[in-house]
Amino acid sequence: MNISSSAGMRGTPGAFAYSATKWAVRGMSRAAAISLARRKIRVNSVYPGLIDTDMVKFRSPEETEKRLSRVPMRRMGTSDEVAAIVIFLLSDDSAYMTGAEITVDGGATL
């Protein structure tokens, strides 16, 4: 399973290397899903958006508000919300899923 930021779901201005590596991870995940399916190995990707963790605490309140203005749900997600998706993907409830790309970003990549 790949967990990478939702910024990999769209281009990011001025972040050529970052965007290239995120798109590479998406391609590798898809190729792995195709290659490993016959061995009953599933490969899915989770792309969290702005999640309320220590990682985002370095931003100023103004920068955080600016980022939240681009999130249709107008809030940060929680690590529990991301974990719930990961737990689902690890469970037998997702037994027929492979190659899925799931964004957990409050609609930011829409």
UniProtKB/TrEMBL annotation:
Q: Return the SUPFAM superfamilies for the record.
A: NAD(P)-binding Rossmann-fold domains
Q: Which organism is it from?
A: Azospirillum endophyticum
Query: What Gene3D superfamilies does its record include?
Result: NAD(P)-binding Rossmann-like Domain
| Protein's UniProt name | SDR family oxidoreductase
Family note: Belongs to the short-chain dehydrogenases/reductases (SDR) family.
Q: Which UniProt keywords apply?
A: Oxidoreductase
Q: Where are the transmembrane segments?
A: none
A Pfam family matched in the record: adh_short_C2
